[in-house]
Every structure is written in C-alpha cells, then in structure tokens.
Write a structure and sequence with these properties.
The protein has a single domain, classed as 3-Layer(aba) Sandwich (Rossmann fold). It contains six helices and five strands. Strand 2, helix 3 and strand 3 form a beta-alpha-beta unit.
Length: 125
C-alpha cells in the first residue's frame, strides 16, 4: 500500500499525530509520500517545512504540485496520486477527497483546526 498525506492543514497542523500514523503504516510495509498543492511563490518550501517538524524521517518523499489557482488542486493531486500509485490519501479538502475517491483512491478528510470548510480559501498561495 502507498499512503499519501497532504501537507497544509494536515501534517502542518497535526504533526505528531500524522508522523505516528505514517510510522505505523511504514512498519506494516507501506510507502509514505506527502503531496502538497502549492502556489508558485511556495515552490520548494514544503520539504523545508517537513524537515523543521523533525518527526518525519527522510524515508518520506515529498512532492509539490503547482497551481495557478487553488481550484486546480484536486486534479493536480489526483494526477500525482495516480502517477505514484497512492492507494490511501489524507487531505483537508472535501473536493480533493471526493475526486480521489471517484478514481478508486481511498481519501479521508481531515477536519481543519479552525473548522473552516471552504476548500479554495484553505490553500496557501
């Protein structure tokens, strides 16, 4: 199994929980990836932020998909998940989860700490 995590509002806001979950998946033989949709001004920043958290080992691969508009995030994440063979994905955006589920990827929505629900505004540019 290949398990994917979104970064912003998921790993970024719940680092201890998701690092433990990633470790448990890894111990059971799963490969772990982080796939984050970022605006052009944030290209190259996710790996540095993951490194600062310090609870994810270097065995986790980080991928950034770059959008012009946050509305592109679902399709970009779907394409990367399909390319990498991701079978399970954790994300804070309902539109991402619905699209991934529609394409056979078990996607689970993580409630944001601020309880916001508007998907487009949730993305950092």
């Amino acid at each position: 199994m290949k398990v994917g995590f979104d970064y912003w509002q998921v790993v970024s806001h719940y680092p201890q929980y998701f690092s433990q979950l990633a470790m448990a998946h890894r111990e059971n033989g799963s490969e772990i990836v982080i796939i984050s949709a970022v605006g052009k001004d944030r290209v190259g920043t996710v790996q540095a932020e993951i490194d600062k958290i310090g609870t994810f080992s270097n065995a986790v691969k980080v991928y950034e998909v770059v959008f012009d508009n946050p509305a592109e995030s679902p399709e970009l994440k779907l394409a990367k998940c399909l390319e990498l063979g991701v079978t399970v994905f954790y994300d804070d955006r309902d539109d991402v989860c619905r699209l991934l589920n529609k394409h056979g990827i078990l996607a689970m929505r993580v409630t944001r700490k601020d309880n916001s629900t508007y998907d487009i505004k949730a993305e950092r540019r």
